[in-house]
């Protein structure tokens, strides 16, 4: 089994958001941040269009495949396929609270079945050499938070899982929508900090409500890694200083205009695969957030990228509406 690679920062798997186009864009901002796919179910991996579901650009590494499922053989085969496709890590979703996930007996509802999760992890670890990790909540429904979390981690780690990413909120499977489950249950960072203190041999990352690199650095005083989700999607440029601040890199901080220009050859490749321009640019709308011209950038892309035949010229026209401000870029 390949050892766990330390990763102080990762971008959360987000349904409908962290597709291959989003990940390639994020990689232009940070060379080292660990990127995750959207959750892919075992049924989709085993029976669906694998190129569409699993395809990615080599530039995305390091990149992890997140799987959803609850059947050991299906997860083992899906993990094996993920490794064949070259992913750096297989992650099991034990945190998603949506009705669709519950009906398939996977996602957050698996927190009530730590013994089953241990079997799932064991089955995947038997057939792959890359790390198998788990993303969870702190508890679900009426289950008491610390005893649930501690018991879950203890049981699953005994099956050989050494990296856990914990969304520091309880999930309510009834009564709250998936969106509400991302905001309504209170954050309990102290429980994840306690988890690291009581399981110092495990790699523990924290997720939930962390919106800046300053906040990430504060969390890294207590845990091994930080996973950021919506904040990165809404303001992707926060990734630009991650390599220097969190990974010790000495490379220059990428400027926003440079990032856009680096995306142009990829946009042509994506169009060659049949993807419309909007499939790429929808992930780039927040790049100039807070700068003069940001609204014009968003508007031009939103109004034109979906049109038939739209290509890099639309992006360049949108870019021309944003004044180059290297000082602002460097300070952002």
General description of the model:
With 332 residues, the chain is an alpha/beta fold. The protein folds into two domains: 9-247, Alpha-Beta Barrel (TIM Barrel), CATH 3.20.20.70; 256-331. It has 17 helices and eleven strands. An eight-stranded parallel β-barrel has the order 1-2-4-5-6-8-10-11, surrounded by four helices. Helix 4 (72-84) packs parallel to helix 6. The longest helix has 17 residues, at 256-272. The protein is globular and about 55 Å long. The model is unreliable at 327-332 (pLDDT under 50).
Low-confidence stretches: 327-332
- As a percent range, the share of strand residues is 5-15%
SSE order, as H and E?
Answer: EHEEHHEHEHHEEHEEHHEHEHHHHHHH
Helix content: 40-55%
Architecture of the largest domain in CATH?
A: Alpha-Beta Barrel
**Helix count, DSSP H or I runs of 4 or more residues:** 17
The global form is: globular
User: What is the CATH fold-level name of the largest domain?
Assistant: TIM Barrel
Short description:
By secondary structure, this protein is of the alpha/beta class. It has helices spanning 20-29, 42-47, 50-54, 72-84, 99-103, 114-127, 145-157, 178-181, 189-198, 213-219, 230-234, 242-247, 256-272, 277-281, 294-304, 312-319, 326-331, and strands at residues 9-11, 34-36, 40-41, 63-68, 89-94, 132-136, 139-140, 163-167, 170-171, 203-207, 225-228.
SSE topology:
Blueprint: E1 9-11, H1 20-29, E2 34-36, E3 40-41, H2 42-47, H3 50-54, E4 63-68, H4 72-84, E5 89-94, H5 99-103, H6 114-127, E6 132-136, E7 139-140, H7 145-157, E8 163-167, E9 170-171, H8 178-181, H9 189-198, E10 203-207, H10 213-219, E11 225-228, H11 230-234, H12 242-247, H13 256-272, H14 277-281, H15 294-304, H16 312-319, H17 326-331
Helix pairs in contact: 1-13, 4-6, 6-7, 13-16, 15-16
């Amino acid at each position: 089994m390949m050892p766990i690679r330390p990763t102080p920062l990762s971008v959360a798997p987000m349904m409908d958001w962290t597709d291959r186009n989003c990940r390639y864009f994020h990689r232009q901002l940070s060379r080292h941040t660990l990127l995750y796919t959207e959750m892919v179910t075992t049924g989709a991996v085993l029976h669906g269009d694998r190129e569409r579901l699993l395809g990615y650009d080599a530039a995305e590494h390091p990149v992890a495949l997140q799987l959803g499922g609850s059947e050991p053989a299906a997860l083992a085969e899906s993990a094996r396929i993920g490794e064949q496709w070259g992913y750096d890590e297989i992650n099991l979703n034990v945190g998603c609270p949506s009705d669709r996930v519950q009906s398939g007996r996977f996602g957050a509802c698996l927190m009530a079945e730590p013994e089953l999760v241990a079997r799932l992890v064991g089955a995947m670890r038997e057939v792959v050499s890359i790390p198998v990790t788990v993303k969870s909540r702190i508890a679900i429904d009426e289950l008491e938070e610390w005893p649930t979390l501690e018991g879950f981690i203890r049981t699953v780690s005994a099956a050989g899982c050494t990296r856990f990413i914990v969304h520091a909120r309880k999930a309510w499977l009834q009564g709250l929508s998936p969106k509400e489950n991302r905001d309504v249950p209170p954050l309990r960072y102290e429980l994840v900090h306690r988890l690291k203190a009581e399981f110092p041999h495990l790699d523990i990352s924290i997720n939930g409500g962390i919106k800046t690199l300053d906040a990430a650095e504060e969390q890294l005083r207590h845990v091994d890694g930080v996973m950021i989700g919506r904040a990165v999607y809404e303001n992707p440029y926060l990734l630009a200083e991650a390599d220097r601040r969190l990974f010790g890199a000495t490379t220059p901080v990428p400027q926003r205009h440079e990032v856009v220009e680096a995306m142009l050859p990829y946009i042509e490749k994506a169009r060659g695969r049949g993807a419309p321009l909007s499939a790429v640019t929808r992930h780039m709308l927040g790049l100039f957030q807070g700068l003069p011209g940001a609204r014009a950038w968003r508007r031009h892309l939103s109004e034109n990228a979906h049109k038939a035949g739209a290509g890099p010229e639309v992006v360049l026209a949108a870019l021309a509406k944003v004044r180059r401000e290297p000082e602002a870029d460097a300070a952002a």
